[in-house]
C-alpha cells in the first residue's frame, strides 16, 4: 500500500523516477477502485456518474505523473507517454515499456533508490519478464 500512497504524495511531481512496482500498484489499485465505484454507484443514476467522473478526474494528474516518472526510470523521456495516442499498438507498446526493468544506476532524471534496487521478483514478474524478453528478441536458435 505504501507504493500507492507514494504515488499520491508525488501528486504532480513530473520529475524523478518511479519504480515498476509503484507504477503497477497505482494502476491496479485505481482499476479496482473504479470497478468498485461502478458496481456500487451503478444504480444511483446521475449521482453515481458524478462520483465515477470525480474519481477519474482526481486520478488524472497523478496517473500522468507516475507514468512519466516510470518512463524516466527506464531511461526514456516523459513524452513517450504520447505513444498511447496511436490506436491499439501505442497502448500495447506503452505497456511493454512500463513493464521493462529499471535502468541501472543513475540517469538524467535522478538516482535509483538504493533501498529498493532490484527487489526479488515474484513468479508473475519473472514470467512477464521472460515473456517480454522472448517477444522482443524473437531469434531462432535452431541450426
User: Spans of 5+ residues with little confidence (pLDDT < 50)?
Assistant: none
Beta fraction:
under 5%
| Helix/strand order | HHHHH
Outline type: globular
Rg, nearest Å: 17 Å
The largest sheet is:
none
- List the total number of helices: 5
How many domains?
Answer: 1
If you average the pLDDT, what whole number results?
A: 83
Q: N-to-C terminal Cα separation, in Å?
A: 49 Å
Percent of residues in helices: 55-70%
Strand tally, please? 0
Structure class: mainly alpha
Protein model, in words:
Helix 1 (2-9) crosses helix 2 (20-41) and helix 2 runs antiparallel to helix 3. The longest helix has 28 residues, at 46-73. With 143 residues, the chain is mainly α. Helix content is 58%, strand content 0%. It has one domain (2-115). The chain is globular and about 50 Å long. The termini are far apart. The chain has helices at 2-9, 20-41, 46-73, 89-99, 123-136. The model has no long low-confidence stretch (mean pLDDT 83).
Outline of this structure?
Helix content is 58%, strand content 0%.
List keywords for this structure.
mainly alpha; 58% helix
Write the SSE topology:
Elements (H helix, E strand, L loop, with lengths): L1 H8 L10 H22 L4 H28 L15 H11 L23 H14 L7
